[in-house]
Design a protein that fits this description.
heterodimer; A: alpha+beta; Aldehyde Oxidoreductase, domain 3; Aldehyde Oxidoreductase, domain 4; seven-stranded mixed β-sheet; five-stranded mixed β-sheet; 21 helices; B: alpha+beta; 14 strands; globular; binds flavin-adenine dinucleotide
Chain lengths: 784, 288
């Protein structure tokens, strides 16, 4: 027990079941009498819906029921939006579960079929005749905000879902006095989250008792239980939501969707368990997308590289309806981070949330913060180019010096702790930046185009204090809870309100508890994802599970430890003040052989034959932990690319990531999170884009066209770290789930632009498809 | 993804497959399923029946006999890529097979299915054209052999009759040449945006003769005869390859395919780059 488990790279206990395929996902569940739902989705981006003839579908073999919007409008309330950003003139358009008179994106549901097997359900979909009258559609957020654009919702003028602004410092003065101003228009293209497991729901409703069990691919079952009560009317005490194994989410499984509520509706109507499993094509069309910004940015600076101000306007595509948390993402999680790790002293940003005839947009790994980091980090490189300074030097000039207990920004945040210069220095020396620059110069002489791209970042994660949640319009709390229960044999059950789905907390949380109370990690089982057995919690997203849920757990474990000390003192006939917890044992200070193990204490606590006075039986504690602040991980990344001038192809040759998430509970898991995050960010820079044509059809509707990162096209990612504890977290930890995605897109972008700098190329829209890069080169070198 | 209803039959021999096809008009042969099953799932193909030829053992494998390299139609791409016989006698084919899709696709997808399907973005058709392969076919009206250059007729169109089965492909073995395949893969599907196969017979440091076939950007592979002529007799240098490659525009014809990822104009511009790269790689092998 003497060795500390915190900090040890023990294997993930999740992996054996995931690797061998024995994990149980929603679609793996089968209930007696279970039937299958399939959704009929609109093939039009925008159309009025006339008569729907379901008679042939109803008569199709195996079909039990066909419901349209008319049938569900009483039983299913509209989808709620749960992040009502204040002071933003927010207009939440009605979002029916099943469309009645108008469809607003390709994928909007118009009917549901329930049949004995899924094949029969899909066969019947082909037999539903819907009379559509196509309307003009709009898909680009900047266009949708313009005059004369098609109206997605009749009652939302100019498609403006909200206008949010943030400002701090004297921006006008910064630009008036600026010696240098650089400007750029950046498109943060729309991305498809692509969780390995598409979404699914299985609903079982007992018509006699009114009890509902809903198995669902969710990142936050407790929030879903609440939203389910609003939409389907099943009260919270009657609804049990279970998130079984969930195969990735990346934000797309935060929101509630019409699909699961329609499934509940069908189960209620039919009195039989109903399963709905989305196809990959449906996943592309109807599971939320990410990003979709048009950004106009100006940066003000002095000639010596000092950044003095940032001014920008963003048109953020929201899709056809506001998804559960959508309004908070391009606003709170985005604009507040613009001071970045430079503490930019003057900021002004206007964000227009815009309805378009596209799939609703939600959080996608990083959620708002990659888009903010990109803006700043891109402009830093532009500034470097403008004043002829190395991008690393511009960064060094502006980074906030190390601080360990708070740095206030002009946007009202207080970064908890940071040492940005050390992270950058470590990156530059590990990568041997000076040598890379020399190699780049030599390569250029022989007509090879190598580029170096840096990004330094800080992110807000560990969402977040509940008081802040209230102030920013989040319709819920953001605390977490945990229960630690020690059984008579000293084995431990941990119940948590967060809902990990691949991140590895079943392992890291066991490590935390093991150290805190004196057991082995294998003695601790972590239970999550079931609203009937776990305490209330707000879910897994925003890099908050360890930052908030881990804190709750550490505190609960410490309560158990304190009680164990009292019981041990009693058994050892010692005073509590004389007891200590050392080497995993509860011992009398100075006499290490007078000690009790946790198992011994637990046995007594559970049988309670001989308890200290006024001490309750049992060895269990729970905590509700509301963090005093967000946590602010940070780091510095470097990408090295080579561009093939003949074809425009980009080869990512090297990637170095330095991330600081505070002390690492399990460095192997941290490395895995960095790998995944970095790769998804690289995907945005080089390959991924969801493209709609002018009529609103999703052109990249499958993996044949939507290019995901592939291992074979990536270099070994070099993962390093610095360690700056959070001053307010009981374990000092910050969060690592999104860091890689936040830093990597712009690192790669900067690298490609650095490679093309000598050719005079200034901007290219992402992703860097070979053709785009080639055209930019052709354009820039025309006439040379 | 849920296909429409279909019946399933498993053929025990080529003859049995022919008989089943006769009994079930409109049926489709199923080999590796890596082109057909996706079409079924998207309901883009709705055949009444599938006739699985995947377990006909004598249709699989690589052999060399009587101066011919023979590859059975059911040989999976991975086996072609790993075969030392293929590497020795038709290196371009090994190159191409090794770059198809991903490991799962290479383990299941077959040579016969690939050419019968004749997707314009497939790799093997161009390679087989450049190597002057012949394609063995069995049907109700008997056996026949068709040169690759006459097999691929257009986009997903071949000389194959409804009831005919590809049994094998054959390539002359022991030729004194070097061959190579240069591919520009689509980043999502891995199919060829452009694929160029080149075969070069060397005469010292000069090119005695060359065969070049281009796929991916055209509905069916084309032999680049202008390039072949331009490079023949020239020095085996990158400069002469680059020059000869410029002629490929004259070989491509009018119908160039474009898509969201790579437009017609871009593909046209890239064709000479890949022709030159394949010539260069083939020459390196020809010199050895
Ligand atoms: C993700 C993915 C990536 C891919 N990438 C590439 C790539 O990069 N390059 C490439 O070239 N290909 C690629 N392919 C296609 C792959 O090579 C397929 O395996 C091949 O095209 C079809 O072979 P199959 O054995 O799977 O045929 P099947 O799918 O079984 O059949 C395809 C068609 O051919 C017919 N058929 C099959 N065998 C015969 C036969 N012996 N005689 C007559 N008709 C027959 C079938 O009836 C059907 O119409 C990819 C496929 C996938 C799924």
């Amino acid at each position: 027990m003497a060795t500390r488990l915190f900090g040890s790279g023990i294997r993930r206990r999740e992996d054996p079941r995931l690797i061998t395929g024995s994990a149980t996902y929603t679609d793996d569940l089968t209930l007696p009498g279970m039937v299958h739902a399939a959704m009929l989705r609109s093939p039009h981006a925008h159309a009025t819906v006339g008569t729907i003839d379901i008679s042939r579908a109803q008569a199709s073999p195996g079909v039990l029921a066909v419901y349209t919007g008319k049938d569900t409008s009483d039983g299913l309330q509209p989808m709620p939006c749960a992040w009502l950003v204040p002071d933003a003139d927010l207009k939440v358009a009605t979002y029916p579960c099943i469309a009645t008179d108008t469809v607003r994106y390709v994928g909007d549901i118009v009917a549901v079929v329930v049949a004995e097997d899924p094949y029969q359900a899909y066969d019947a979909l082909d037999l539903i005749d819907v009379e559509y009258t196509a309307l003009p559609a709009v898909t680009n957020p900047a266009e949708a905000a313009g005059d004369g654009a098609p109206q997605v919702h009749a009652d939302v003028d100019k498609n403006q879902a909200f206008h949010w602004a943030v400002s701090g410092g004297d921006v006008d003065a910064a630009f008036k006095d600026a010696e240098v101003v650089v400007k750029e228009r950046i498109i943060q293209q729309r991305l498809i989250p692509n969780a390995m497991e598409p979404r699914a729901a299985l609903a079982e409703y007992d018509q006699a008792s009114g009890d509902l069990t809903l198995w669902n691919t969710t990142q936050n079952p407790h929030i879903l239980r609440f939203l389910n009560s609003v939409v389907t009317g099943v009260p919270e005490d009657r609804a049990r939501i279970i998130a079984p194994e969930v195969g990735g989410g990346f934000g797309s499984k935060i929101p509630a969707y019409p699909g699961e509520f329609i499934t509940v509706f069908c189960a209620k109507q039919l009195g039989r368990p109903v399963k709905w499993n989305e196809t990959r094509s449906e996943n592309y069309q109807a599971t939320t997308h990410g990003r979709d910004h048009v950004q106009e940015i100006e940066l003000a600076a002095k000639k010596d590289g000092t950044i003095t101000g940032l001014r920008c306007t963003v048109w953020a595509g929201m899709g056809a309806y506001l998804s559960t948390a959508a309004p908070g993402i391009p606003t709170i999680l985005h604009g507040l981070m613009l001071p970045a790790c430079y503490g930019i002293p003057a900021i002004k940003e206007d964000v227009y949330g815009v309805y378009t005839n596209t799939t609703p947009v939600e959080a996608y790994r990083g959620a708002g913060r990659p888009e903010a980091t990109f803006m700043v980090e891109r402009m830093v490189d532009r500034l470097a180019g403008e004043i002829g300074m190395d991008p690393a030097d511009v960064r060094k000039k502006n980074l906030i010096p190390a601080f360990d207990d708070g740095h206030d920004t002009v946007t009202g945040l207080t970064y908890d702790s940071g040492d940005y210069p050390t992270a950058l220095d470590k990156l530059l020396s590990h990568a041997d930046y000076a040598r890379l620059r020399a190699e780049q110069a030599t390569a250029r002489k022989s007509g090879r185009y190598i580029g170096l791209g840096l990004s330094t970042y800080v992110e807000m994660c560990g969402l977040g204090p509940s008081q802040v949640a209230g102030a920013i319009g989040f319709q819920g709390g953001l605390w977490e809870s945990a229960i630690v229960r020690v059984h008579p044999t000293g084995k431990v059950h941990v119940f948590i309100g967060t809902s990990p789905h691949g991140q590895g907390e079943e392992t890291t949380f066991a490590q935390i508890v093991a150290d805190e109370i004196g057991v082995g990690a294998d003695d601790v089982k972590v239970i999550h994802g079931d609203t009937d057995t776990t305490p209330m919690g707000w879910g897994t997203y925003g890099s908050r599970t360890t930052a908030v849920g881990g804190a709750a757990l550490a505190k609960a474990a410490r309560k158990v430890r304190d009680k164990a000390k009292v019981i041990a003192a009693h058994l050892l006939e010692a005073a509590v003040e004389d007891m200590e917890f050392a080497d995993g044992k509860y011992s009398v200070k100075g006499s290490p052989d007078k000690a009790k193990s946790l198992a011994e204490v637990a046995l007594m606590a559970n049988v309670a034959w001989n308890m200290p006075a006024n001490v309750e039986a049992g060895l269990e504690a729970s905590t509700f932990y509301d963090p005093p602040n967000f946590t602010f991980p940070f780091g510095a990344h470097l990408a090295v690319v080579e561009v093939d001038k003949a074809t425009g192809q980009v080869d990512l040759k090297r990637y170095v990531a330095i991330d600081d998430c505070g002390p690492q509970i399990n460095p192997v898991i941290v490395e895995g999170q960095v790998h995944g995050g970095v790769v998804q960010g690289i995907g945005q820079a080089l390959w991924e884009q969801a493209v709609y044509d002018d009529s609103g059809q999703l052109v990249t509707g499958s993996m044949l066209d939507y290019a995901l990162p592939r291992a074979g096209r990536l270099p070994e990612i070099e993962v390093l770290s610095t360690v700056t504890p959070s001053p307010h977290h009981p374990l000092g930890v910050k969060g690592i789930g999104e860091a890689g995605t936040i830093a990597s897109t712009v690192a790669v972008y900067n690298a490609v632009m650095d490679a093309l700098g000598p050719l005079g190329v200034e901007t290219i829209d992402m992703p860097f498809t070979p053709e785009r890069v080639w055209r930019a080169i052709q354009q820039a070198t025309k006439g040379h | 993804m849920y296909p429409a209803d279909f019946a399933y039959y498993r053929a025990s021999s080529v003859q049995d497959a022919g008989r089943l096809m006769n009994e079930h008009p409109g049926a489709k042969f199923l080999a590796g399923g890596h082109s057909l099953i996706p079409l079924l799932k998207l309901r883009l193909a709705v055949p009444p029946a599938l006739i699985d030829i995947g377990r006909i053992v004598d249709l699989s494998g690589v052999t060399v006999a009587n101066g011919r390299l023979r590859i059975g139609a059911l040989t999976p791409h991975a086996e072609v890529a790993a075969s030392s016989d293929v590497a020795t006698h038709a290196a371009a084919l090994a190159d191409a097979a090794g770059q198809i899709g991903d490991p799962a696709v290479r383990n299941r997808g077959t040579v016969g299915g690939n050419i019968a399907h004749a997707d314009p973005a497939s790799d093997l058709p161009a390679v087989l054209c450049a190597l002057d392969a012949s394609i063995g076919i069995v049907g109700a009206s008997g056996d026949r052999t068709v040169p690759a250059s006459e097999f691929f007729l257009g986009m997903m169109t071949t000389a194959l009759g409804e009831d005919e089965i590809v049994t094998h492909v054959e390539i002359a073995a022991g030729q004194q040449h070097g061959s190579a395949y240069a591919k520009f893969p689509h980043p999502a599907s891995r199919y060829a945006v452009i694929g160029v196969a080149a075969v070069i017979a060397a005469d010292g440091d000069a090119c005695r003769s060359a065969a070049v076939a281009v796929g991916g950007l055209v509905p069916a592979p084309v032999r680049a005869s202008n390039v072949e002529q331009a490079v023949s007799g020239e020095a085996l240098t990158d400069a002469s390859f680059a020059k000869a490659a410029q002629r490929v525009g004259e070989d491509l014809g009018d119908e160039i395919l474009g898509d969201l990822f790579a437009s017609v104009e871009y593909r046209r511009a890239m064709a000479p780059v890949y022709v030159a790269r394949s010539l260069s790689a083939a020459a390196a092998r020809a010199r050895k």
